[in-house]
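Standup notes
- HV: blocked on the assembly model, inputs below
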Amino acid sequence: MTTYPILSMITFLPVLAGAAIFVCSERVARWLALAGSLATLAISAPLYSHFDKGSTGLQFVESVPWIPSWNVVYSVGIDGISLPFIFLSTVVSVLCVGASWTAVQMRVREFYASLLLAETAMIGLFAATNLFLFYVFWELMIVPMFLLIGVWGGPRRIHAAIKFLLFTLAGSVLMLVGLITLLRASGTLDFQALAATRPNAALQSWLFVAFTAAFAVKVPMFPVHTWLPDAHTEAPTAGSVILAGILLKMGGYGLLRIALPILPDAVRLFRGPMLALSAIAIVYGAYVTLAQTDVKRLIAYSSISHMGFVTLGIFTLNRNGIEGAILQMVNHGIVTGALFLCVGMIYERTHTREIAAYGGVAKLAPIYSTFLALFCLAAAGLPGLNSFVGEFLIISGAFDTRPWYGVMAVWGVALGTTYILWLYYRVALGEVKPGLRALRLDLDLREVATLAPMAALVLTIGLYPESVLGFLRTSVAQLVVASAASAAVVGGM
Amino acid sequence: MISSLNAIVPMLCVTAAGLAAMVAESFRDPGERMPIAGLGIVGLVGAAVATLLLWNHNVSSFGVVSADNFGLFVTWILIIVGALSIAFSGPTVERERLPAGEYYALMLFAIAGMMLMATASDLLIIFLALEVLSIAVYVLTGIRRDSAQASEAAFKYFLLGAFSSTFFLYGIAFTYGLTGSTHLDRVGSLIAAQAMAPTPMQLLAVGFLLVGFAFKVSAVPFHMWTPDAYEGAPPAVTGFMSTGVKAAAFAAFARVFLTAFEPLRGDWGVILSVVAGATMIVGTVVGVAQSNVKRMLAYSSIAHGGYLLVALIAANDVGKGAVLFYLLTYAVTNLGAFGVIAVLDNGDRANDRVSDYAGLWNEHPGLAALMTIFLLSLGGFPPMAGFIAKWYVFSAAVKAGDNALAIIGVLTSVVSVFFYLRIVVMMYMTSSSQPLRFPAVPKIASVALAVSAILIFYLGILPTRVLDWAAESISTIF
């Protein structure tokens, strides 16, 4: 175990770097942002090397009284469930800095400061071990994201930013009500203490509705998903990557961290509807994706379908399903993030997102098309690439408990293969579109360096899924056992 | 004998500064520049030192002014309000060619009245203080004599204010008729000794006092004057009255209702809950429809009055300090926001429409960032002070069993975020065809704005010390 406060360091280093950016010139700002996010990634290394995979408790715990009179503590710590998300946040942030290097030319300092503030909020959220802190970081995430979409976004950015804000705020207000009620009922906000002293079944149902509403908006689950296509489409590339890569995972993480361990009776009660909504998201999302003509919108709708797998996996409530859900979140973050990076790179050259404007890109930009092919195949769930493992686990988890939902999921996979390969076909293959020939379409070194880590992760997780699953196995097992056992105890009373 | 003056030393300092400002004005040649505002700051510093020395001593003067920690905490808030308001007033006074001596003297007299109101422990003294501060603020509202809008605002404010004062006075008369005293301690013990069921007389007394206070804190349905007065007054004055008057009125409100009328809590609690709920809802919902920033912030301050009322209703063991902490954060935040408006005010154009803020970020990124901080804090975003304050109030309400109020509070504060962020959208995401023209930001004002922002972050990130002070302070009265 390390002795220095590593989690606090990686949480607050980005925001300090963000503050430092304001005192330097725009040229330096990019380098400083890169240095800040890289340093964060570097400092986080001991989290993986010193993580005890067999331990069921929290690790790297730090705890300082914050507001003693309210019994509010600044406490952070990680277990196997939060570690993958911290990894994802630190990696994605670095790549976002890289991806915006030339794309962002306006208000560079403010852009990178917002990005780094968002990184702090993300890492803090995944490291928090009490609800108060969780909520603080949850809210903190809203402002930089709002600015990223609204200031640096596309033509309809204000509409998208406000839509994002309204949905998110509607969710977080319900969470705040739930939070205060939970505090009153249990007298604590610490996750572990809350899981030990659960509220009664009736109250749990109300709390579940309040919290899940907030998480469902973020995931986003059907039918509160409508903000996502707009936000994704209008956001700048880095904004889309953060949205897809991390922000959506905050919802899934919240379900795992709060709903399952603290409100298990309500989870059982609402399981049917949640599974149904997940299945609808998978199939409906996939059909809507098929109809898209805008690349970014297509990927946005595919996110809804893919995140449907996540919620489906979570509410199977068995080990396979939950492990698959976490892995799927990581994979989706990597693959969709990478796809958005790819779209952003070609958009910088062509300034169009209409699929119809592309064609034959493979002939003009072989390196680009190779990356695109890899990520498209990964998104389609090709065995040997990362998404396959997560989807496989989720589907097997679903077949263990509710086979029909497994069938729906398989249907979703089939549709997913169709729309993503059709996208690749339309963009990269076929006749070269006349407008493209004059452009220098292929990637430069910086862009290759941005995509290569994603590609490496796709292959690593695909070929050796244990590299992620190893970390989360113990924690997930504990989560499944704890929520199942307690439900029986409480139910018997 | 002289020692019995101790409790009023803070207001004496401020009053002396006000008198000095008047004298200075009479010696000033037309057009001569005099550091009259500096006199006010000196007076406030004196008051601050006096307050510091009085802390924990719980002294009382003439038996009717008690400098307990509760009163002193509010005095502290008022000193901050005064200092920031004076700092924001400079450009207005100069540009509008207002008589500096009059302006600052009125402001200082108003502060003295507020301080008296916060520490008074006798209903008649509270009334006296109320009049002192009100008359000064009426005049300040209409100090731009050549502006029809300002005169209209001042007149409206004056008429309704005078009306509410009579209610208040009537309440005092009924209280005296019931108990034979106007001193809060005696009133409290006599009411507690009277029959268990509240008599109609008691309810009338409570009701009239409630109406009087409700006017001053602009609670629904007595809020009608607020938007007009806030819009008509110069922005620095609006900032001053939206925070100072509210702080003083809430201090007296809390003192009267939590000590003298504590035995009747069951009765006034219900009425006040309805008022608080209506205040939050009306302030927020109507605020959404505003296109003038000052009117919008007027409705926002009505809504914040509603949150303060919730804090008052929920003043239990947990939520004791909520009123004071909320007052402090609200004062700093709202003054900051009005400070930005005051800085943008430019002789011929007030620049106070929401659309005037378009592209402010390009013109003056610093001001835009500060305004964002103030607005986010008003909306209750972490890690700003507004979040901690709201959390305090709502969790106190839930602990006290007022779930409905807490839920209304949470919902309305989300809706309010929507209109606060409209300004942010304007500043950052829209560009204007004609750039906003406003005079250079004076140094003092930018320092004051920076101080407000720092205080907001301090209270939001490390609130412990101030929270404890607030809780300890209010425990000196109940």
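- HV (later): unblocked. The first strand of chain A starts at residue 59 and ends at 67. The two ends of chain A are 41 Å apart (CA to CA).
- Next: hand off to the docking folks.
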